[in-house]
Amino acid sequence: MNPYIRTFLKYFLQGVLIIGPLSTTIWIIWSIFYSVDNLIPHISERFPGLVFAIIVVGTTIIGYLGSRFLAGKLLVEGLNYILEHTPGVKFIYKTIREVIGSFVGDKQKFSTPVWVRVQENPEIWRIGFLTQEDMSFASLSQMVSVYLPHSYAISGWVIVIQKENIKPAEGFSAKQAMEFAVSGGTVGMKNEK
To answer: Is 28 helix (H, G, I), strand (E, B) or coil?
Structure first.
């Protein structure tokens, strides 16, 4: 191959590596902003960004009132009760609430990163999150459940495994463990020398 073309391709691909993640991030943020801002099109046409700002501020106020004041907590719990007991709606609502609650809020579910031995010979370990420390409720004593996220996806799977096949992921916060797993092991801890 011509050395000029090789040099051109090398720098072009390096540019793609630099611009790709940045432009994709900007595009996703812009798409979310644009979608939310256009929920009320006639307002967003005259005052771009106003609907988005109102929704962000309103959500923050609802979060504050719902977690700080008795009346707000009662209202939120009452609404939760109604939605969780409405046929057809309860499955959708409860699933979405549990998934969002697993990652954010006061009751984060993926807070205990662990290493899981998934194969003995050769020994293979995967990083995951302890979700149930005791599976006795399912007649599986000495067993635990662990969520194993998939790399480069927002999915994963749950396994039930004997307690001796897990160990704490020392040195990993929950955030670092999730980044490590989702990135396919390319993002993680650096050895400081």
So the answer is: helix
Q: One-letter amino acid identity for 15? A: G
Give the pLDDT band of residue 17 (cuts 50, 70, 90). confident
Tokens of 162: 């004997």
Phi-psi map region of 51: left, alpha, beta (phi>0 left; psi -120 to 50 alpha): alpha
Indicate whether this model's pTM tops 0.85: no
What's the rounded Cα separation, in Å, for the pair 137 and 149? 24
Is residue 144 a contact partner of residue 163, using CB atoms and an 8 Å limit? yes
- According to DSSP, the β-strands at 124-132 and 166-168 are unpaired
- The pLDDT tens digits for 93-145 are 887 777 776 666 656 667 789 999 999 889 999 999 998 999 999 999 889 99
d(CA 76, CA 66): 6
- Torsional sign, CA 56, 79, 86, 95: positive
